[in-house]
Design goal:
2 copies of one chain form a homodimer. Chain A is mainly α. Chain A folds into 2 domains: 1-57, Homeodomain-like (Arc Repressor Mutant, subunit A); 63-200, Tetracycline Repressor, domain 2. Chain A contains 9 helices and no strands. Chain A has helices at residues 16-30, 38-45, 59-83, 89-106, 108-114, 124-147, 156-175, 181-184, 188-200. The first copy, chain A, is elongated, with a radius of gyration of 20 Å. Chains A and B meet through helix 6, helix 7 and helix 9 of A and helix 6, helix 7 and helix 9 of B. The structure holds a DNA duplex (19 and 19 nucleotides).
Chain lengths: 202, 202
DNA sequence: ACCTGAACACCGTTCAAGT
DNA sequence: ACCTGAACACCGTTCAAGT
């Protein structure tokens, strides 16, 4: 359907790594899980099935890179969500929780991949760093809330873990179809977040 | 190492389905994820690689059955944990949360499999039923707590979702190595559960 | 009723060889 | 510096045939 830019596809693709990543991201969004094959990616990119190995040592490395990209995107989404309103920590927490869950539900396979140790392999360290970087957004809201006397001054780590676990749990359970309205009430997610907030507030 | 019971292994194995499930459970506990192969299971069971197909239509069906078994075990663990003490709902909630997280950390691959839609396929319905059956244990504690005037009388669904999401989130993040003491404090899990409880209590 | 052996259509990964 | 083609050692799954 789309006409190639070059009249003859050159031997050297030029930007294959980008294309591989983009294709993989698309396949991630098109189906459940990350069972897509490297060979299928190569087919869609119109290169030989061995070509991807010039850019990634193996499939796990590609998956790890996709996970990194996901955490960066999540951090950006969270940052944007709290920036939109120069509001109270409570409002910020609600907004960022919403953004977090929305990210997960919009990209379920990608989200699950981000937290899957499969994606680890060699690059687990970087992965955890990026995860913590997204996590830090939530943590900072809590810190501000404590400083402003809105949240209880309990150890920050515990509160932060509670928030992260709550949004992660809600996101995962929703993705896996276990928080459906028929099962668990129409707005269980909002209610759950309210419960969390009541535990945090003075 | 172990001597077979029969002097000559008979053509008909007799209890192959059980052996397949047990072998799969063992492999699940021996490595990350469920990338084990049906052929390897057949090898360990000393049958042909086609034999498992007489008992499971495909690999996903086997995985689904493993997930069912997991939810049943989890429900049992939860039930036992609250039965040990004829205690207050608060103590029961803490005990069951502990049992829940311990289950996940003791069987990380199995736990993740239980919540993985991969395992769904045809039997998603039964799976969700079993999941809800485990979930009901938590829900009942909350119900009692409300009746006894210990927990806020907010809609039960929201409170239950908050509890499940909290323990599920803590379990998953721990499994994935994101709640390590170095990262997030020594007893972030206990602290997170305390935050949850403070949101529930009157 | 349950199991085997051969066969099919795939994978991931490697490597010498091409441009 | 980047890509290809053939090759290897696997899979999951099927099916006619055996016991």
């Amino acid at each position: 359907m789309t006409e190639p830019n070059e009249t003859r596809r050159p031997y050297h693709h030029g930007d294959l790594k980008r294309v591989i990543i983009d294709t993989a991201l698309k396949m991630l969004s098109e189906s459940n899980g990350w069972q897509f094959t490297l060979r299928e990616i190569a087919r869609r990119a119109e290169v030989s099935h061995a070509a991807p190995y010039k850019h990634f040592p193996d499939k796990d490395s590609l998956l790890a890179e996709l996970a990194l990209i996901g955490f960066d995107k999540l951090r950006d989404d969270l940052t944007i969500s709290i920036g939109l309103l120069a509001a109270s920590p409570i409002e910020q927490l609600i907004a960022s929780a919403g953004a977090y869950i929305r990210f997960g539900l919009a990209n379920p396979s990608h989200y699950k991949l981000m937290f899957s140790a499969d994606a680890g392999g060699a690059g687990v360290v970087h992965l955890n760093e990026r995860a913590m970087s997204a996590f830090a957004v939530l943590r900072d809201i809590l810190k501000r809330g404590q400083n402003e006397g809105i949240f209880k001054k309990h150890p920050l780590e515990g509160q932060a873990a509670a928030c992260w676990a709550q949004v992660h749990g809600l996101t995962m359970l929703s993705i896996d179809g276990l928080l459906l309205p028929e099962k668990v009430g129409a707005n269980a997610i909002e209610a759950a977040l309210r419960t969390l907030l009541e535990g945090l507030q003075k």
